[in-house]
Structures are given as C-alpha cells and as structure tokens.
Write a structure and sequence with these properties.
- The structure is a single chain.
- By secondary structure, the protein is an alpha/beta fold.
- The chain is 45% helix and 11% strand.
- It contains twelve helices and eight strands.
- Helix 6 runs parallel beside helix 7 (171-178).
- It is globular and about 55 Å long.
Length: 283
C-alpha cells in the first residue's frame, strides 16, 4: 500500500505523537508513505468564515500538488478537520463553475486542480486497506484486559465521509478487537466534543466534553482519531470534573498509539508522555 501523507498543522505541534505513532504503525504494516512536499494549512474551520472560496482553495492547493506526484496513490490525512475540508472541497470542485473559480485562484501558485486524487482518513485506511486480520497478525502484545471506548467525534464520519455510518460508526471496533482489547460501547461515540465552541462559549463546549467523558467512564481509556477531540477531552478533565461533581481521569489516546503498543513498538514512537492525563495501562 502506498500513500501521499498530508500531516496537517496539528501534527507538527500539539498532536506530534499522533503523527509519529501513525507513521510507525504504517511502517510496521508494510505501507509506503511519502510526505507531500510544500504542503500548507488546509484552512481548518477559520478560512471559510472569512471567504467561502478561500475555504475551498486552501485544501485544493494541497490536492493539486498531490496530483502532480500521485501516480495512483491516495492522499492520507490523520486530522478529521483536514479530512472534512478535503472532502468538502473535492465535492465543491465537481461543479464546473466552482472548479473554474478555484483554478483561477490557484494560478498565483502555478498549479491546476483536476479532481484526480482522493483524500482519505487514516481510520478508513486502517479499517479497509489493511483490516482486522492483517492488523491482528502484527500484534505481539495483545491488549487483553484493557477496555477501550471508541470515540469518532463528529467530523471523522460526517458529513462527507463515505466509509462508515455517520450516526453509528463501527470501523474502529474490528481494529480494537484485533488488538485484543474489549470495546466499551457508549452513546456518545459520534457526538461532538465541543472543541469548536470551547473558546468562544466555554460553558457550552465544556458541557459537551463532559457528556463524552461521562459516557466513557466505564472504560480504561478512550481511543480517538481526531487531534482536536483528543486535545479537548484530555486537556479539560479538571474543569469537566467540576461540572460533573466528581473526579474524572481517563486517558485519551490516539488509535495508532494503542496499535503501536499492541505491536510492541517502543515508547519513543508511542509518546505517551505527551498526553496530559497520565497513561497507566495495565496489560
């Protein structure tokens, strides 16, 4: 399996452990991954607020660069916000008039977008290109006795994602079971964690985060595939504890970190020490 890797901004800083563990896991699975040269920010949620065209052109610029070197490879992203932006822009560019405007804006960069590459989320790749059986074959240290609550968040599976059910996703289940973990199902698996409003309306955002953490309290840890969700659920557990009236302490890990643990990869690529809530997993 070969991919063009689009890291996204968070992988360079706040979610460095996501990047490092993902690349290590993909290498262990035998994937060939090449980072997209000269990639830039996709605009996240901020660009579209200023300009709808800018909100589309920023991600498309990266897709246009990927088209030049793709040779049949898909664009792989690990950030759910980046993934949503890419998929939204791909859909927008199917309209000939929008595509013309997009390419006019891209002229300053000297690139043209043709719509010939596909952006995919790491969860899609892990679940469907490799699958539970292949993943299980690479397990050296089964996560037996570990109860994991899957948390997809709102942007991984909707509104543009084609690889899972947008209300009742299941793509993480087979992977976690292949690792030997027990899956802890809950009613907030695909709900929003409140990241988008926690800075502007903190009382709303924190209550949204509290609803997710409260639903997962029966698990040993949470597995997520979104850097914004991970940061929000990990960073605000003290404030959530005050909202709920009791102490909340549950590690929030990226799925590839758990995979790396089960694969027997070293701590240097798992980077548990970068998480705010201490990780003490008894296996």
């Amino acid at each position: 399996m070969k991919y063009i890797f689009y890291p996204g901004c968070s992988q360079e800083g706040s979610a460095l452990e996501y990047r490092v563990s993902t690349l290590a896991v993909l290498e262990a699975l035998g994937a060939e991954v090449e980072e997209l040269e000269d990639w830039t920010c996709c605009g996240a949620s901020a660009a579209a607020v200023r300009s709808d065209l800018l909100g589309v052109v920023l991600p498309v610029r990266n897709l246009a660069l990927a088209e030049q070197v793709a040779d049949g490879r898909d664009v792989l992203t690990v950030c759910s916000a980046c993934y949503t932006n890419f998929r939204r822009s791909m859909e927008a560019a199917t309209d000939p008039d929008r595509l013309r405007l997009i390419n006019e804006a891209l002229e300053v960069e000297g690139v043209t977008y043709h719509g010939t590459v596909t952006a995919r989320h790491i969860l899609d790749v892990l679940a469907n290109d490799f699958g539970p059986e292949v993943i299980k074959d690479h397990v050296k240290k089964p996560l037996e006795g570990l109860t994991v609550a899957p948390y997809y968040g709102c942007q991984t599976v909707r509104p543009y994602s084609p690889f899972d059910d947008d209300q009742r996703p299941t793509s993480m289940v087979g992977i976690l079971e292949a690792l030997g973990a027990t899956v802890y199902h809950h009613n907030r698996e695909a709900s929003c964690c409140g990241t988008s409003v926690v800075m502007t309306k903190p009382e709303v955002g924190l209550r949204m985060a509290a609803s997710v953490l409260e639903a997962c309290e029966g698990a040993d840890c949470i597995a997520t595939v979104c850097p914004m969700c991970q940061m929000n659920l990990d960073a605000y557990q003290d404030k959530v504890s005050r909202i709920l009236g009791h102490r909340v302490r549950i590690p929030v890990l990226f799925l590839p970190q758990l995979m790396g643990l089960a694969f027997g990869l070293p701590e240097s690529v798992l980077m548990f020490d970068r998480l705010i809530t201490p990780v003490r997993l008894e296996l």
